[in-house]
Amino acid sequence: MIKILVLHGPNLNLLGMREPGIYGSVTLAEINQKLQTAATSLGAEVMCLQANSEGALVDAIHSAWGTQQGLLINAGAYTHTSIAIRDAIAAVNIPTVEVHLSNIYRREQFRHHSYIAPIAIGQISGFGAESYYLGLQALVHHLQVTGI
User: Fold this and answer.
1) Angstrom distance (rounded) from CA 137 to CA 112
2) Residues annotated as catalytic (active site), given as ranges
3) Is 69 helix (H, G, I), strand (E, B) or coil?
4) What mean pLDDT, rounded, does the chain reach?
5) pTM above 0.90, yes or no
């Protein structure tokens, strides 16, 4: 069975309450539940973790080495600032898909740069919670095709 680590970055624990006009009304618990269901139907297993701390996200990425075949990540604001998260993903060399609820390229200029995108196999943004499910499908498909 394909094992995928799903990481949610800072402030995503507030989904459903935080700026619903930008991030929608779906809660993180609802996203995780739907990811679990979708993973099962795709023949995969997901482990979901949310952390507000950069170090906790780096530690989770390190722990995925040798235990997870893929990484689905919404690093939140760390997308635009964290070389440490970028370096952790590069170090473990696990196929990674970056997702965002909002279209980061239609927002403030500082959100247009991602440290993760250059080392990810793909990026999906702008489709609300659906970005996660699209990212999961794409990642599982990639892993099945490549045989990883």
Assistant:
1) 24
2) 23, 100
3) coil
4) 93
5) yes
